[in-house]
Amino acid sequence: DAEITQSPRHKITETGRQVTLACHQTWNHNNMFWYRQDLGHGLRLIHYSYGVQDTNKGEVSDGYSVSRSNTEDLPLTLESAASSQTSVYFCASSESSKNTEAFFGQGTRLTVV
Amino acid sequence: DQQVKQNSPSLSVQEGRISILNCDYTNSMFDYFLWYKKYPAEGPTFLISISSIKDKNEDGRFTVFLNKSAKHLSLHIVPSQPGDSAVYFCAAFEQGAQKLVFGQGTRLTINP
Question: For chain B, N or C: smaller number of CB within 10 Å?
């Protein structure tokens, strides 16, 4: 069965360190997204990609970067982790057609100490 | 600037009764709306959707209503069951875009 997986599921890191969260999907979807979930804010879009070599900033992109070198993967990098980036991160993917629902991974809980 | 708003952080409903979750939006370019359900330690899963050309969509116990003039949609669950206890997110697509904008979520608790 096709799926979308995130790793690690939990991560604790120190302020200032670079951290990369992995996202891998086997749906063969062109669209991939990274969201963060915080109490009172719901799911906020960090970065997204509509295909290989395409990346776009979402509403809360500062301090984050992504790269899309193949269809299956969209790693999210925190350049210099800050305590404000403590959150639960969700990766999602969808078909590249209008109004199709996105499928989500199980999430990565990141704690920056 | 929250374009999709769920103003009730939590809702508690008796088992067997109707649960009504509300969502408001501000962007008139939104043309497709979805509801997602999320259990703890899991990713959100798609529940039901509605196009802006419709005012109602039904799927089993779940019905979504859209009032375009009021920029308001609601999710009705009837009858409510204990397994419906979860966080529900309202989301919207902007016309021509393929990225979802989410609300803050409402935690629904179904009491036996």
Answer: N
